[in-house]
Structures are given as C-alpha cells and as structure tokens.
C-alpha cells in the first residue's frame, strides 16, 4: 500500500514530544546564533522552557538589511554553499546564507510537503517559478528530485513554451503563482485548449503571493485539478515552511523546523489560536544563518482543531495580507485580498484586476479596474452598468468602502510572470 506520509514519525509526533524537540533545537539555535555579529549580545545562552522565548527581542526585515551582508552569518564563510535573496516584495532585498546541511534540510521539507499533497515518483512536475535568487524555483526543484518525480525546470515566463511543455511531456503537477495561472488560462482559451480535457494536470501548488479562496476555487474549476496553498519566505528558506494537506483547509507549519507565533502587530503580544495577527518564526535547524523571532509581516491565524490527516503540526489560515499592504482609505482599513475575494466570486469578472489609490482634493480615492468577460464587455451598456453596480455593492458589504469601478476588456491590464502587482499607490506622500 502507498505510504501516506513522507516521514511518519516526525509528521505525526505527539505534541509533547514535539515541544521537547523544539526546546532542544531552540537551545542549539541560540548557541549557533550567538556566534553571529548581530545576535551575540542580543540573546541568552540557553532557555529552560519555550515560554521564555517571548523575552527574546524580535528580528525584523530592517535588522536583516542593517546587518547586510554578513552580520547574521553564524558559521565561517567556507561552510556556506549557497545564498538566496528575497525578491524585495517591499523595499531592498535581503540575503540568506545556507550551509550544505541547511540545503539538505530544506530539500527534505519540500519533499515532505509535495508528498503530502499526493505527488509521487510517477508524476511529471513542471516548475513554473523563477529559477535564481528567488527561492521558488530551486527550492521546489531539489525537493521534487528527492521525492523522485520527473521535474521539468521550466522556470517562469514564455507562456507558449510552457503550454508546449505541458502537452509534450504530459505534466501532471505545476508550481505557479495564482496570478500567472489566471493569465495562462486566458491564453489557453485563445489557443482553443481546454486544460480539463486536453492536458494531464492534476495538482497545482499556488504560492509566492496572497490569493483568496475564491481565486483558488476558480483555478481548480478552470483547470480541473486540486490546488494546494504553498507558503514560505526566503528568510525561512523559501517554500516548504507551510503547506496544505489533502484536506485543503489550512496549511501545516513544519514545527520541527520552525517555532510559530502569532502576535498582535501593534503591541507585539502573543495571540491565541483563532486570533488573527502577524506570523513570527524562529528557525530550529538553520546552521548558516539562524533567525530568531522573525516578524514576517504576514497576517494569518492558527487553527485550534487537530487535522484529520493525522499530522500534529499546527495549521495556519491562508495569508490575509501583509501588515504593510493594508490600505487605509478614508480611515477604513482594507486589505487588497478582501477586494480580490469579492471580484473572483463574480462569474462575469475575468481573471485580472488592478487597485489604484490616489489623492484627490486631499482625500484618498480608490479606483479599481476590473477585467470583465469578453461577451459582457461587448454586450449592452445596461449589462455593464448593472455589473458595475453589483461589484460596488458587494465591495461595500465586504469592506465598507465604495471605490470607483472601471470595467475593462480582458487581457488589457498589466500582468506579471512573478509576483503580481495588484496595488498602485499614487497618493501624495507629503500631504
Ligand atoms: P520572498 O521571500 O521574496 O519569497 O517573499 C515571501 C513573501 O511572499 C511572504 O512573506 C508572503 O508575504 C508572500 N507569500 C509567499 N507565499 C505565499 C502564499 N502562499 N500566500 C500568501 N502570500 C505568500
Ligand atoms: Zn492535515
């Protein structure tokens, strides 16, 4: 019979033993980190229980930037075999160094995550994430090789070639950003390809950027596959930090390798299961560059329930947004993801949108450009007006704001092959 787990012992470990393991590894991490310039005076030599972790200061993105390039390096440079840099989603890039064993551990986490979704040796995996400094390409690449699937290192972009690869080699699994997947579907339509019947795809990993449940469901329906949410950040290796299991209801965080905390982003206080806040991670196995209590800026909540899949590692919800991408429009807080959720739930809305925010008469003004289906766009003006009204009403219900809506033709808004740019902020900074 097919084994359900990649590493049953660790994936189903009881919580008590898991916490013991965490404390042991945390103390090893403190010892290693104290060799770095940055941490040597900031952390205790040892702690006696996991609750004492909260007395250690947070590490932030700007700490990483300020200690660029080697301030957090905890081993000699000779031990380092690879570096990755964050894509700089917000601000300047940061660098992360890995030893041989770091790469080996990361690879194992990725293989474990992929296996959990049902990928097996017989699969053909087309990795459509950028190869290079970005972790999405190489991270999944080595994990897949360890698992034993046949990998096509397609990298991102060149949509025509992607489609040809899918057809020629009968790809069954893809790794793709949700925004690019939506764009690809439009190309399929243009070429008269029905991915449900003409291709062999059965699994997609969606990652690297926030996306709503509605987008994921839309993609599952359009492509006829199971989509799994894949979450990671280069500071914590990259992909393979948290991944959905086959129940597709929340992502298991691999707690043998990371300590997970959810904090109130304003006060820094720890929050309980079910309370939404900022994710904070501590690496537990990292040698080259251990990072302690890293404030990710990503907003989510933990699930209190045990998962029926048998894995004991806690689950987090999908990422609602980042602390730094929350928009404040006329005093109302709104995450771009709330807007996406509304749009992707309306069938007449096509696969792309853009949020623009600017200053008009000293006030914030929000304008949302929405691609609509071809037949709707060329249909009657009355239908367009009523669709606009519906979008406005649904947005008002979800977010309490009433943005200006502009309906545009499909395929007319800018698209990206990597992380999508969904918000253009043109507000006057000095007002
Ligand atoms: P980078 O380190 O450049 O790969 O960027 C990592 C960031 O991408 C994370 O901190 C998140 O903000 C975002 N991200 C990655 N995966 C996901 C995901 N599955 N859902 C939402 N956001 C994600
Ligand atoms: Zn599960």
The Cα radius of gyration reads 22 Å
What name does the CATH topology of the largest domain carry?
Rossmann fold
User: How much helicity do the residues have?
Assistant: 25-40%
Give the name of the CATH superfamily of the largest domain: ANL, N-terminal domain
Total beta strand runs = 20
- Based on secondary structure, the structural category is alpha/beta
Terminal-residue CA separation: 66 Å
Q: On the 0-100 scale, what is the average pLDDT?
A: 94
Q: What small molecules does this complex bind?
A: adenosine monophosphate, zinc ion
How many separate structural domains? 2
Topology:
Elements: H1 8-11, H2 15-33, H3 61-66, E1 80-85, E2 95-99, H4 100-116, E3 124-127, H5 135-147, E4 150-152, H6 159-169, E5 173-176, H7 178-190, H8 195-198, E6 203-207, H9 213-223, E7 226-233, E8 238-244, E9 251-253, E10 258-263, E11 277-283, E12 294-300, E13 315-316, E14 321-322, E15 327-329, E16 332-334, H10 336-344, E17 349-360, E18 363-372, H11 374-377, H12 381-399, E19 404-408, E20 423-425
Parallel strand pairs: 3-4, 3-5, 5-6, 6-7, 17-20, 18-19
Antiparallel strand pairs: 1-2, 7-8, 8-9, 9-13, 10-11, 11-12, 12-14, 15-16, 17-18
Helix pairs in contact: 4-5, 7-9, 9-10, 10-12
Bound molecules: adenosine monophosphate and zinc ion.
Structural description of this entry:
The protein has helices at residues 8-11, 15-33, 61-66, 100-116, 135-147, 159-169, 178-190, 195-198, 213-223, 336-344, 374-377, 381-399; strands at 80-85, 95-99, 124-127, 150-152, 173-176, 203-207, 226-233, 238-244, 251-253, 258-263, 277-283, 294-300, 315-316, 321-322, 327-329, 332-334, 349-360, 363-372, 404-408, 423-425. The strands form 5 sheets. Strands 4-3-5-6-7-8-9-13 form an 8-stranded mixed β-sheet, with helices on both faces. The protein has 2 domains: 1-324, Rossmann fold, CATH 3.40.50; 327-425, GMP Synthetase, Chain A, domain 3, CATH 3.30.300.30. 30% of the residues lie in helices and 24% in strands. It is globular. The model has no long low-confidence stretch (mean pLDDT 94). The protein has 431 residues and is of the alpha/beta class. The chain binds adenosine monophosphate (AMP) and zinc ion (ZN).
């Amino acid at each position: 019979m097919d084994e359900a787990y990649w590493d049953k012992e660790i994936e189903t470990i009881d919580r008590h033993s898991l916490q013991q393991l965490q404390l042991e590894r945390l103390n090893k991490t403190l010892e290693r980190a104290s060799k770095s310039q940055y941490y040597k005076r900031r952390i205790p030599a040892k702690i006696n229980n996991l609750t004492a972790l909260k007395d250690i200061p947070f590490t932030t993105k700007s700490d990483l930037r300020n200690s660029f390039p080697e301030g957090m390096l905890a081993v000699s440079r000779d031990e380092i075999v690879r570096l990755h840099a964050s894509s700089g989603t917000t601000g300047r890039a940061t660098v992360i160094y890995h030893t041989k064993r770091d790469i080996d551990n990361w690879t194992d986490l990725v293989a474990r995550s992929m296996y959990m979704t049902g990928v097996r040796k017989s699969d053909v995996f087309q990795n459509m994430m950028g190869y290079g400094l970005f972790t999405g390409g190489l991270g999944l690449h080595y994990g897949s090789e360890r698992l034993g699937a046949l990998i096509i290192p397609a990298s991102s972009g060149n949509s025509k070639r992607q489609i040809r690869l899918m057809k020629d080699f009968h790809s069954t699994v893809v790794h793709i950003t949700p925004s690019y997947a939506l764009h690809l579907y439009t190309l399929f339509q243009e070429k008269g390809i029905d991915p449900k019947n003409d291709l062999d795809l059965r699994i997609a990993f969606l990652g690297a950027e926030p996306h709503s449940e509605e987008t994921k469901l839309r993609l599952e329906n359009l492509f006829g596959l199971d989509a799994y949410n894949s979450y990671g950040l280069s500071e914590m290796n990259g992909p393979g930090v948290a991944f959905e299991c086959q129940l597709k209801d929340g992502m298991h965080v691999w707690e043998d390798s990371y300590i997970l905390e959810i904090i109130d982003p304003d006060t820094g206080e720890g929050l309980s299961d079910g309370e939404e806040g900022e994710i904070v991670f501590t690496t537990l196995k990292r040698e080259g560059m251990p990072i302690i209590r890293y404030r990710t800026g990503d907003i989510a909540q933990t699930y209190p329930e045990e998962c029926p899949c048998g894995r004991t590692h806690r689950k987090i919800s999908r990422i609602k947004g980042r602390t730094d991408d929350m928009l404040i429009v006329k005093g109302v807080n709104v995450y771009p993801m709330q807007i996406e959720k509304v749009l992707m739930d309306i069938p007449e809305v096509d696969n792309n949108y853009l949020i623009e925010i600017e200053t008009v008469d000293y006030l914030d003004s929000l304008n949302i450009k929405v691609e609509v289906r071809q037949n709707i766009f060329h249909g009657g003006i009355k239908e367009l007006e009523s669709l606009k009204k519906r979008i406005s009403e649904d947005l008002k219900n979800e977010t309490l704001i009433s943005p200006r809506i502009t309906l545009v033709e499909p395929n007319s808004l800018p698209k990206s092959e990597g992380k999508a740019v969904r918000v253009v902020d043109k507000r006057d900074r000095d007002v």
